[in-house]
Specification:
The structure is a homodimer of 346-residue chains. In chain A, α1 packs across α9 and α4 crosses α9. In chain A, α2 links the parallel β6 and β7. In chain A, 30% of the residues lie in helices and 22% in strands. In chain A, the strands form 3 sheets. A 6-stranded parallel beta sheet of chain A has the order 5-2-1-6-7-8, with helices on both faces. Chains A, B: It catalyses: L-aspartate 4-semialdehyde + phosphate + NADP(+) = 4-phospho-L-aspartate + NADPH + H(+).
Chain lengths: 346, 346
């Protein structure tokens, strides 16, 4: 590693839930950083972040801040990416963008390294990181698609509040405390901060993540539908999603129904296809009540799969349960993996 | 009402979560009770319940306790029903059983009054009340089946802890307080009290409700599958279920996918079919963020439906979201409705 090339790396949105995890992940794998450029809004500029035991000053995210930057990981919301990603690219950086700004742009590869690492080569300066709930699902789907073919996906999600950022985590804590004390909860963040109405998430379930589209699906649901087809290079794949926000802090869970191509596939075939895959941990031993949960998956980078069952009526239908930490594999870890794959090809 | 026949009514399991709600519901609709017989385990015998402002002594649930009883509502677990339901019937009572003991018995009607009230006439002394998660789903499905035909159902549930009784409600409270204080939660009730392993439910999601069957489905999932077909008299209906316990106290929610018979049905057709149906409230106005949630449905007897969408790939496919109070329409209220329908025919 002594002779390995080192990079100037910017992290945009470094004070946010995902930005913090990106620093943690880069530290953990000892990413070859020459200089770290922690960037955030004007409000946070001048404060410090700690990286590898040293304090590094946060600078304001503006075009000039990208001078000399070779890899820029964006995670500060779609509008910041739309304003600054091209500025970073113009200054010579490759952008790994963890917002929805460019994901469906046909000139931008949308990458989950376990699924379509080779798409990184098609980048024109920007590589998009998919939506959290999409990532964990396609990691589980890809080995099944490869082995058995895949023609249909119906998913219902169980998503944690950290997907809406640190303010939503605090809102769940505050509301939970209030309700346990018999008081009325106050809601101002969830389901969508910018929307008119807010509902309590504590001891509740909200069937709205992101805003509604004209077709009655939410934007989160459409992300899962469109991104899955793009990442898997299967535009004709039938995908349907229902996305629900729930009162837990970290990790998303998903109840997934799939139809494979053949009628002669067994539960054991599916288990074998998922076992020992990179990035996947099979936790499917019902005799011993082994299955993944949000709490058991928190803080881990893998995608956990359990509860694999064969549909009782449709011979090529299967059901399973997928859980992963939405801030890690769903965001920070996948972005850092993309950066790793990029420098391997550099 | 002055000349209406009055009945000797026993409530078995009167100290439990559902038993308490049965008393509330009977009081609320002024059920014609001549004498209330509150029954429970030996441990609770001698204590009192309050009914219509008066204290009534709880007696031990044993065969002789049913002497003179005309209607017996059982909600004390399957083993109590298996021991005592026939004893009650032998003594002249009609039993309305809210356990899984007799639901799939072909000589026992399984009744949701909005769907198959007429099946009450086929009873041989016992009428079964379906599982909570089944009831709310079939109430929403029946008007759609009648109008458009129905050939497929895939449901993922979001179920509250009160479905596991008062002890599970207390466990969620205790664990939530502990975790908010940074302490380790203790688990001894959920997912299934009698099972070897218990997992925290607070700020978590458990993909196990009831024990596992040989086919890898849980008993709760098989209840939804088998009971739906029986109630709707459609044994060939394709039904699949994934049941998940979540950290809220009351009401179950369900993400339901259906396929109707025709390809020319619209969202508006479904909304119209559900609007103004007895027992159903359509809460589906996405422009104003209107959809049901567990908190908004708590304490109400109706079944709430929202988030109706057309599948984007399958022309006869639709998705929607159903919420209802599991202790009311899912248990106590449906049992009391059966009792009402029974005395109307009496």
């Amino acid at each position: 590693m002594a002779n390995q090339k080192q990079y100037d790396v910017a992290v945009v949105g470094v004070t946010g839930a995902v930005g913090q995890k990106i620093l943690e992940m880069m530290e953990e794998i000892d990413f070859p950083i020459k200089q770290l450029h922690p960037l955030a809004s004007k409000r946070s500029a001048g404060k410090n972040v700690v990286f590898k035991g040293e304090e590094v000053e946060i600078k304001e995210a503006k075009p000039e801040a990208f001078e000399g930057v070779e890899i820029a990981l964006f995670s500060a919301g779609g509008s910041v990416s739309r304003q600054l990603a091209h500025e970073a690219v113009e200054r010579g950086a490759v952008v790994i963008d963890n917002t929805s700004a460019f994901r469906m742009d046909e000139n931008v590869p949308l990458v989950v390294p376990e699924v379509n690492k080779e798409d990184i080569n098609e980048n024109n300066g920007i590589i998009a990181n998919p939506n959290c709930s999409t990532i964990q699902m396609v990691v589980a789907l890809e080995p099944l698609r490869e082995k058995f073919g895949l023609n249909r996906v119906i998913v219902s999600t169980y998503q944690s509040v950290s997907g809406s950022g640190n303010a939503a985590v605090e809102e769940l804590k505050d509301q939970s405390r209030k309700m346990l004390d018999g008081q009325e909860p106050e809601a101002s963040i969830l389901p969508v901060k910018s929307e008119e109405k807010h509902y309590p998430i504590a001891f509740n379930a909200l069937p709205q993540i992101d805003v509604f589209e004209d077709n009655h699906y939410t934007f989160e649901e459409m992300k899962m539908i469109n991104e899955t087809k793009k990442i898997m290079h299967q535009p004709e794949l039938k995908v349907a999603a229902t996305c629900v926000r729930l009162p837990f802090f970290y990790s998303h869970a998903e109840s997934v129904y799939i139809e494979v191509d053949g009628d002669d596939v067994s539960i054991e075939n599916l288990q074998d296809a998922l076992r020992d895959q990179p990035g996947i941990v099979l936790e499917d031993d019902i005799a011993n009540q082994v299955y993944p949960t949000p709490l058991s998956s928190e803080g881990k980078t893998d995608v956990f799969v359990g509860r694999i069952r064969k549909d009782l009526d449709v011979p090529n239908g299967f059901h399973f349960w997928v859980v992963s930490d939405n801030l890690l594999k769903g965001a920070a870890w996948n972005s850092v993996q993309i950066a790793q794959a990029f420098i391997q090809q550099d």
